[in-house]
Each structure stands twice: as structure tokens, then as C-alpha cells.
Amino acid sequence: MATNNQTALITGATSGIGYELAKLFAQDGFRLVIVSRNEATLQQVAEDFKQLGSPQVTTIIKDLTQLGAAEEVYQETKRQGITVNVLVNDAGVGEYGFFHEVDFSKDLEIIQLNIITFVHLTKLYLRDMLAANEGRVLQLASIASHQPTPRLAVYAASKAFVLSLTDALIHELKDTNVTMTALLPGATDTDFFRKANMEHTKAAQEDPYDPAMVAKTGYDALMKGENHAVAGAMMKAQVVLSNMLPNELVSTMAEKYMLPAD
């Protein structure tokens, strides 16, 4: 893909894997559209991406956990005359705890962002890509897409949804020039653990992956038009095992990483 005048819209670009992905797009000369509810952080990272080589960075202040946010983002890009050539659905949220103890409002926030906004953004921009018969989509799934995870149950279920939908759409797109890639990171050294109240867990403390490495894995796969990208040899082995073993055993294995590190 020639990057001249190409635009990538990235959710979750203010930190973690999304930030590292945006850096890669900027370095390759993509125009960027970045979305966040924090205006100050948006403006700060926008300057970072300009310094790295992005010729234009458009910021959209929007809380993607709110109903209707995807449509509002889409209409704003239309209003500004921006054609989105690459969509990166990186934004996501989780919450640690036993299912019956986590407040339902948190479950709704996870479902709204990880599923509803994700689906709506994909649908809106995919229609435009198919009309032009050109485009790329990177969907942030997770190793949890393959692992029912006690104490992170709703988050893991939402990521299983992400992977299932992505795989179905990959098949639907096979005769077009639009590609879709699922990135499946394992535990990664980002702010996710703090926001999900799970900094004390083994997953958070036992050598999580570098977000820059994870982002590069996903970016390279996206640019090659590959269906899946799994960062790290250990994660690849976990995917294979998770697909071979019964869910009861997979859940038992996954729960070990949810236990306190000490």
C-alpha cells in the first residue's frame, strides 16, 4: 500500500499497543485520525506522531464507551472530508474480579466498547472500503479470545466475539481487495492492568510483552494482508493448546495467571 494521502483511524492510540501502532503508521507517512475522550492526552500524542512523520493528525474527542459514539466519529470524518483507508480497532477495557462481584455497569462498559462500538465502527468504515474496493482493518483480539478466563470473564468473552466476527468477515472479504487482520496479544506491559484493577496478578507482573513488539507484529501482518498475528512464540503455543484442550482445562490454566503474583 502506498502511504501517500492514506489515512489510518486508530482507537486507543493514546497509550499501549495503540500508541505503538500509531507510531508505526506515522513513521510510514500515514495521515492519522486518533480518538479519545481525553483532550489533553490526544493533543500531546498528536504532536508525537507529527514529529515522527505523519503529515496530518486529526483528533476526535469522543468517549467510545457511550452508545452512538461510533456513528458520531464516522460522521465527523465525513464532515471533514476524510477517507479512512485503514481502520484499527484497538480501544478496549476489562475489569478484574469474580463475575458475580463485578458491578453490572462495568460489564456494560466492556460490552459497549469491546463489542458494540467495535462492531459499529467496523461496519461503517468497511462499507466505504468495499465501495472503493480497497482498505485494511486491524482488529485487536487477544489470547483470551481462545481462553475462557475466570476473574476476567466478560472481557475474555468479548474478545472471543471479536475473533469470531473477524474470522467470519475475513471469509466474506476473500474475493475483494479489502483485508482484515486479527492481532492476538498475550499479557502486554500497558495501562490495561491498572485500569482493570489487576496489577497484582501474575499476568501483570510475570514479564508481560513489550507493546512495541506486539504492535510491530500486528502492523507487519496487516500490511501483508495476513489473517492473524500472534505476538510471541509462547502465545502461539498457547493458541494451539487452547484449541486442542477442553474448555474446562483451558479455563483452569488461564485462571492461574489471574491469581495474585505473591
Automatic annotation (TrEMBL):
Q: Which family does it belong to?
A: Belongs to the short-chain dehydrogenases/reductases (SDR) family.
Whether Protease counts among this entry's keywords is no
> Which Gene3D superfamilies does the record cross-reference, listed alphabetically?
NAD(P)-binding Rossmann-like Domain
Coiled coil location = none
Q: Name one GO cellular component term.
A: membrane
GO terms for MF: oxidoreductase activity
Q: Does the keyword DNA repair apply?
A: no
InterPro entries the record matches: NAD(P)-bd_dom_sf, SDR_fam
Q: Which SUPFAM superfamilies match?
A: NAD(P)-binding Rossmann-fold domains
Q: Which UniProt keywords apply?
A: Oxidoreductase
- Pfam families given for it? adh_short
Name of the protein this chain belongs to:
SDR family oxidoreductase
